[in-house]
Amino acid sequence: MKVFMTGGTGFVGANLTGTLLEAGHEVRILTRPGESRRSIPAGAEVVIGDPAVRGLWQERVADHDVIVNLAGASIFSRWNDARKKQLRSSRILTTRHLVEALGRGSGEGKLLLSTSAVGYYGFHGEEVLTENNPPGTDFLASLAADWEREALAARGLGVRTVICRFGIVLGKNGGALAQMLPLFKLWAGSPLGSGRQWFSWIHEGDLAEIFLFLMEHGEIDGPVNFTAPEAVTNEKFTKTLGEVLKAPTFLPAVPGFMMKLVLGEFGDVLLKGQRVAPHKLQDAGYAFLFPSLREALADLLAKE
């Protein structure tokens, strides 16, 4: 199939692009002028354009069978008004412009795989969350709901639309794990706040394979949780990561009030979390490569 991708220069996009190319698909990545292309695997074609701005790049979209929308500024920062505006525009405008571009051709037989996040659900403590749960009311949940609404407009064009609600993506070359490793290697890893908050994660290998699975299973649409079957608490994640690294985790937990002081509103994302289950994938028969955290970390950290 011919695949058009936004956000393809990040570590998730680069890993997914490699998997798509290995599976025999053609991949074209929308890249902003001047943006580094070093992470783009050989074999992928580059299309120049800014997805947040209408432009000539939109003329290329309708020629593809699959549209993968990964674009969006990172949420891992302190949120002020300017940052919140950037988080919204980088998601809402990109998705809106992609759907507009799809409208320039026939939507029949096309597939839009548009990213969202498990933050959509808000914070629910111990409750197990599935694709049927409604959105939360905090900033991140509202942002995710608006983002998804823009993508679902493609259904009106006859495009099969899948909303990919990512958990925390664990990968070898970036993301949350790369930020954690330096502290853990210094034996300075510790739980955050109470440590009882849930951590819903996905191995980068499974994430890429799920995209292939969805491309092959035309009966699946709407929201899909991209999370492993074994959600864990932050305390268990910390302990398991330390054990895999053979780095003791004996320090006391980082106090929640300190995280809120440093990170502000974003601190809630790390201190509360979500317990998410991938019901749609399991019901459709997807077999996880890395269903448990220990085997996922052992694979990712094999050379550490």
Provide the fold topology.
Blueprint: E1 2-6, H1 11-22, E2 26-31, E3 45-48, H2 58-61, E4 66-69, H3 81-102, E5 111-117, E6 128-129, H4 139-152, E7 160-166, E8 168-170, H5 175-185, E9 198-199, E10 201-203, H6 204-216, E11 222-226, E12 232-233, H7 234-245, H8 256-263, H9 267-272, E13 275-276, H10 279-284, H11 293-300
Parallel strand pairs: 1-2, 1-4, 2-3, 4-5, 5-7, 6-13, 7-11, 8-10
Antiparallel strand pairs: 9-12
Helix pairs in contact: 1-6, 3-4, 7-11
Could you explain how this protein is built, in words?
The structure is a single chain. With 304 residues, the chain is α/β, with parallel strands linked by helices. The chain has a domain at 2-168 and 200-228 and 277-288: NAD(P)-binding Rossmann-like Domain (Rossmann fold), CATH 3.40.50.720. 38% of the residues lie in helices and 17% in strands. The protein contains eleven helices and 13 strands. The chain has helices at residues 11-22, 58-61, 81-102, 139-152, 175-185, 204-216, 234-245, 256-263, 267-272, 279-284, 293-300, and strands at residues 2-6, 26-31, 45-48, 66-69, 111-117, 128-129, 160-166, 168-170, 198-199, 201-203, 222-226, 232-233, 275-276. The strands form four sheets. A seven-stranded parallel β-sheet has the order 3-2-1-4-5-7-11, with helices on both faces. It has a two-stranded parallel sheet with strand order 6-13. Strand 4, helix 3 (81-102) and strand 5 (111-117) form a beta-alpha-beta unit. The two termini are 36 Å apart. 41% of the residues are buried. The mean pLDDT is 92.
